[in-house]
Amino acid sequence: MTRNILLLLSLTLTFLSASGQDNETYLKANAIRFDNPEKLSDNVYTLLSPFQIVMVGEMHGTNESAPLVSGFDKSFHHQRR
């Protein structure tokens, strides 16, 4: 019984200290719009090259994600030469 209470208290304290964010506000402030996902500007490379991982997502389907990843690949290979 005491063990269960301690576990519950620990979990409660963990979740109380976690802070969330408003997804819509965060996305509006940090999202990057690409006009042509298959041909990215050098600014995209400059912006993203410091990161080891870049997450790519799609809100309404999968039509744009694949060309965008292809554009990233072309941009990063072109810049490394």
Q: What report would you give on this structure?
A:
Helix content is 58%, strand content 0%. The protein has 81 residues and is an all-alpha fold. It has one domain (2-80). The chain is elongated, with a radius of gyration of 20 Å.
Rg of Cα set: 20 Å
What is the makeup of the main sheet? Answer: none
The number of distinct helices, counting runs of at least 4 residues, comes to 4
Overall 3D form: elongated
The figure for the number of domains is 1
What class do helices, strands and sheet pairing give? mainly alpha
Question: Could you give the order of the helices and strands?
Answer: HHHH
Number of strands: 0
Distance between the termini: 64 Å
Overall mean pLDDT score? 75
Percent of residues in beta strands: under 5%
Proportion of helical residues: 55-70%
Q: Identify low-pLDDT runs.
A: none
